[in-house]
Predict the structure.
Amino acid sequence: MSIALPALGAPRTQRIDLSSPILILFAAFLCVLILLPMSWLIYFSLVDRNGAFTLDNFKTLVTDSAFLDPLTTTLILATSSSIICCAFAAPMGWLVARTDMPLRRTVRALVTASFVTPPFLGAIAWELLAAPNSGLLNKIYRATTGAPPDEHLFNIYSLAGVIFVISAYTFPYVFVLIANALDRIPGDLEDASSILGGGTWTTARRITIPLALPALLAGALVAFLQAMTLFGSPAILAIPAGFHTMTTKIWSLFNYPPKPELAAAASVPLLVLTVALLRAENLILGRRGYSVVGGKQGNPRLVRLGALKWAALAFVFLVLMCPVFLPYGALLNATFSRVATSFVTFDNFTLHNIHFVFFELSATQLAVKNTFLLGVASATIGTIMALVIAYLTTRRAIRGYRALGFLATAPVAIPGIVLGVGLFLSYARPPFVLYGTLWILLLAFVTIALPAAYQQLQSAFRSVHTDLEDASRILGSTRLRTLRDITAPLLRTSVIATWCFIFVGVIRELSAAIMLFTSETKVISVLIFDLNESGDLGAISVLGLIMLVITFAVVIAVNRIPGFGEARLRNA
Amino acid sequence: MPEVRCSRRQLLRAATALAGALAAGNPARPARAQARAVAAEPITPALIEAAKKEGKLAFYTAMDLPVAEKFAKAFEARFPGIAVRVERSGAERVFQRIGQEMGSRIHAVDVVNSADGAHFIAWKRSNWLAPYLPEEVARHYPPQYYDPDGLWVTTRVWLSSLGYNTNLVKPEEAPKSFADLLDAKWMGKMVKAHPAYSGTIMTATFQIVREFGWQYLEKLAKQKVMQVQSSTDPPKKLALGERAVMADGNDYNLVQLKEAGQPVEVVYPAEGTPLVTGPSAVFASAPNPNAARLFQNWLHSLEAQQLLVDFARQHSVHALAKDKPGARRLDEIKLWKDDPAGVEQMSEEIKARYAQIFKV
């Protein structure tokens, strides 16, 4: 790689290295983000209402069927979603990364669109589509087959329905992991297999699949964790279906009279399970890691599908119907229809929902403002933190970098709703009253985003060779100046990707926000959730579409900042 | 607290007599009115001026969102420069949010309107409410519909009824009573709202348990009822055709939907219909105290109360509010009496038993 080094000027005389204050500052901040809420959570799970030590909360948890049933449901749900996600994401990832299927880039873009869709919005859209009696798909089914009015093809208000919707919005994670892993498997190994006489399928079976297996395993795990800790989709679909999951149960414990002790205790199994699974992943992948993955050798060879490529494309688009085409169609239809689940015709076309959301609904403006503000602030702060921590750990710039890296990764083990409970317990009472301000939401969103942001930027730092930085240091720059003048410009693509990733994550976030909002700090996701509880589906559709427009507008705008973001669009 | 023992007509007669007595400056005022601890307040130019300086207020309410926004917009039109922010949720959720906010010393609520009168007992006990008695209330409201200390006023009266979708159910086959809902033919075809979310349903559940005992709900739970949260939702689910029959929910939403041409019909059950009263109050810690008082005053004026009857399709206790021609009057319906003090005693038990019976 060759680049032009900017002029560095004369060596500076003043050389205060800020690394140890920075370490202390960041470590302290990470403690506030993670250790404090989790400590309060554990403390509350071990006391009764008067603050005396007790194990009764846990006893209730393992003996009361009101807790055991949701736990069982959650495990069934997470396992099934994980299997379904892998079953669909793996072949799709392979088709997109390793075959000559047409429209591969479009497919990748559409998967991104399904990632941008908040799972709770997807759940509401699927209510419009597959509610047993009023769902559009069931209406079409009855109209085409002449089935009687109480017969239905789909019932979204069921365990199977919840599993389906969760899978539809979890599969992007698995898809991206698998497609990226397959992208990185070098063609050389496959060439070797071919030269030695292996046919296309033998090569796939003996070389490609084993090499991609760790990514598949990681994908299965991510899907399991996502499905286990998701709040929005089950809250919208499971309660009408007549059951609770762990997350909806925890949330219901904050209804009056609030039982924070039980909520804290009920959060502990989710926390323990997450930590255990991440440990297990480490152990398994630690042994199975192939060093070739990550190299930049020859381009991957594309498998020729021949006539099958059209069948493959049809399969992929059929899968994408579920998270993208059908839900957006249903939301658009509900926006302009007098009755949310009637097809728009000349007779029932209306602009009333749009008028209501923009001119009557008094919460709209505040919620949009709060969401935008929090999105930008969380993305900026989160990116800066992740950038600094990733730099310090990859360059081993200071002592204690391991601890810093650990702290930055730790929140991955904390489900959103558990973090929400922890933050509420920590900051809703003196001495630190942050509840009621946007700050507590900011803390939550930054914490949730940090692990993924950190990992993205860490791998970006690893790809920038230290020679360039060393050259700058030899020429007399401080670490910070080197970072600013040399490293940062090389990383801008990754930085922008990380910023957008956090921004999208904030817009999608509901599970922590639902625990932490007040009337003045409402965000769009919470507003949509409120509207769903009173059945205002038309208004939800409008707000949901506004949300998507804001997201895409911001992501595109950030990518077009002159001299900063242009690179990203090309690479995307 | 509000109770309806007499018919609405009797009640109006009593109220009109009371108002007449007050207007005539009759010295023989009823004892209750004399015992009032606070003076009745008119809307004065000074109040309007002070409210405009604050420029905004937060209205926490459990009424259907489009109805609440309608009141907000009507108020904003009447007093330009004062923005009303509606914070709508189920009454039980509103109660929890206010409790959580006050517990963290966050003072955000100015005026609250609930669907569960029991909340005002709790708030009064905590000294969270400001005494404020609008003049029209003192003049035109029957005394059982406002607190003698002026801490709350009954803003609206409505019912939790049954209902059905007329495309899916023929009128002669529709359920006529609570008992009819236990018929096997309604298995999997009903929708109902949740007492841990909705004050209307909390009130209605209390009355159902009082009249029939828990065994009625235990039998109902075996009918595979679709469970939603707000009492505003079952009417909307009927209109969508998602379920054929609603086992509880607001009658006023059904009336609104029917008048808008949707295929729904209200049924007032033969055994009696749960009556719900929705009081409003100004919070003592209101961040916009003057705007709050102005809004509370206006909300109980004839202008707003007529809007309640005509648009929101609920019932007013304002003596001068006129029924909508052709609308079903309360005295034509067999009503159960509401009992906020009883609800207050039982609300935790209701939430716990209900969750056990219906699994959510």
